[in-house]
């Protein structure tokens, strides 16, 4: 079918309705214009804020030029999906208990890449059934895509000072996904920003990774350090990580707009393996087989067992001194990985120093 013969406005209405049926909280349409975003990306890369995420620099400006990434692209269908588990343990309570592990709430259930990609493909299939064959490509954090900028341009929210997308009615507890297409759909208007003078996210960041409004130094971000960073975590940052072993939600937890966030209605994002408040020592005792089997289908699995132990070792070093914490660390002191051994020794030295200070205080 010739695209010129389509009722494009009616098709957009249908696409948004189908999106809601598939579990998306909202769907919007935008064009390929990302001129300002391209300049911001290049400035961010020039400052080295991407750390060891070489893929951020590898694709260069293609990330900000959708039509170069997928030739023929005219529009981007942007969609968001709520992920906050409805029955997860209260986040601040978990972070306040140094014997427990805090895991970013997005990673407590099934891997979002699989969930969103499947739903977006189903949406594309429904569009194809309605209009005939058309050119498209589905993305879910899987290619050089400026998803926050595209979603903002599509009217799904605005880029908050913490650099995440925010919406007045949904906060920020949602995933984003895109369909690049050659359909010349009518576009939505960008949403206006509503952060105002608030800088709660900057103030709460444990490592001061949000160096200025709308500017994140990933090298200091706990999410980067626990997930993307492959090597030794800088010693100066380890005490600031607390018990966060995979990701960090502080900037979202403190954001006033998340008072209006909605929990997910999808069983895929329900808590698995009790990871919303598991004991650090128990997770540290997992064998590599335990890690691989229990986290099958989880986003956490992609960091690998070595980083899993590295992260937990840091958290155990920040935990209150106890026989359980110290014994757990000693159990991995001879681990084959030099990376794990280094972080275990650092953690044990923390407890040795704490014991010395306690004895000194009693003298």
TrEMBL record:
Species for this entry: Sulfuriferula plumbiphila
Record-linked NCBIfam families: tRNA epoxyqueuosine(34) reductase QueG
Summary of the function given for this chain in its UniProt record: Catalyzes the conversion of epoxyqueuosine (oQ) to queuosine (Q), which is a hypermodified base found in the wobble positions of tRNA(Asp), tRNA(Asn), tRNA(His) and tRNA(Tyr).
GO CC, any one term: cytoplasm
Catalytic center residues: 141
Binding-site list for [4Fe-4S] cluster 2: 205, 221, 248, 251
Assembly and oligomerization: Monomer.
EC number(s) recorded for this UniProt protein: 1.17.99.6
Cellular localisation: Cytoplasm
Name of the gene: queG
HAMAP family: QueG
Keyword check for 4Fe-4S: yes
The protein, known as: Epoxyqueuosine reductase
Domain 4Fe-4S ferredoxin-type: 183-215
Binding site for cob(II)alamin: 63, 141, 165, 176, 223, 248-249
Cofactor: binding details: Binds 2 [4Fe-4S] clusters per monomer.
Catalytic activity reported: epoxyqueuosine(34) in tRNA + AH2 = queuosine(34) in tRNA + A + H2O
The entry's keywords: 4Fe-4S, Cobalamin, Cobalt, Cytoplasm, Iron, Iron-sulfur, Metal-binding, Oxidoreductase, Queuosine biosynthesis, tRNA processing
InterPro entries: 4Fe4S_Fe-S-bd, 4Fe4S_Fe_S_CS, QueG, QueG_DUF1730
Pfam name, any one: Fer4_16
Statement: the UniProt record of this protein carries the keyword Transmembrane helix: no
Pathway given in the UniProt record: tRNA modification; tRNA-queuosine biosynthesis
GO biological process: tRNA queuosine(34) biosynthetic process
Main location: cytoplasm
Family stated for the protein in its record: Belongs to the QueG family.
Requisite cofactors: cob(II)alamin; [4Fe-4S] cluster
